[in-house]
Amino acid sequence: MANQYLPPVILIPSSLVITSISQSSPMVIGVAIGNSTTEANTYIVGMAVRLFVPQTYGMYQANNLVGTITAISGSVFTLNLDSSLFDSFVVPSGNVEQPATIAPNGSRNLQYNNGTDLVPFQSLNNIGN
């Protein structure tokens, strides 16, 4: 019996470039979305995400923080983090070595209901196999 070909799918969402971070509680993050909303649609409420914020972006206190997405509105994510006492977030001018990004974090992101298009993980049997 030959192996069945399965088309490629996104297993874990790719990271998104951060365009803004509020100094507030809860933290509100703006992200850059390319020509398609496909990338952002793989992020859903309840996902754990990790922030990567290089020092050149100012809000270095947010670097490597892990939070949970509590709301999504277009390209704006709300996280259960308090950034009210952090330095201001600024996008540096010119070329940067690495952009500020948000990315999925941890294995709990891998088992959501695949009955919708808004899932971070796709599998044949909805349990990750």
Features:
129 residues, 6 strands, mainly beta, 3% helix, disordered C terminus
Could you characterize the architecture of this molecule?
- The protein is mainly beta and 129 residues long.
- Helix content is 3%, strand content 25%.
- It contains one helix and six strands, in the order ββαββββ.
- A six-stranded antiparallel beta barrel has the order 1-2-5-4-3-6.
- The longest helix has 4 residues, at 38-41.
- The chain starts with 15 loop residues before the first strand and ends in a 25-residue tail after the last strand.
- 23% of the residues are buried.
Low-confidence stretches: 117-129
What's the overall average pLDDT, rounded? 79
> What sequence of helices (H) and strands (E) makes up the elements?
EEHEEEE
Overall 3D shape: globular
Strand content: 15-25%
- Looking across the biggest beta sheet, what order are the strands in? 1-2-5-4-3-6
Broad structural category: mainly beta
Number of helices: 1
Query: Mind telling me the C-alpha Rg?
Result: 16 Å
Q: How many beta-strand elements? A: 6
What level of helicity do the residues show?
under 10%
Q: Nutshell version of this structure?
A:
The protein is mostly beta strands and 129 residues long.
List strands and helices in order, with pairings.
Layout: E1 16-21, E2 27-31, H1 38-41, E3 48-52, E4 66-73, E5 76-79, E6 101-104
Antiparallel strand pairs: 1-2, 1-6, 2-5, 3-4, 3-6, 4-5
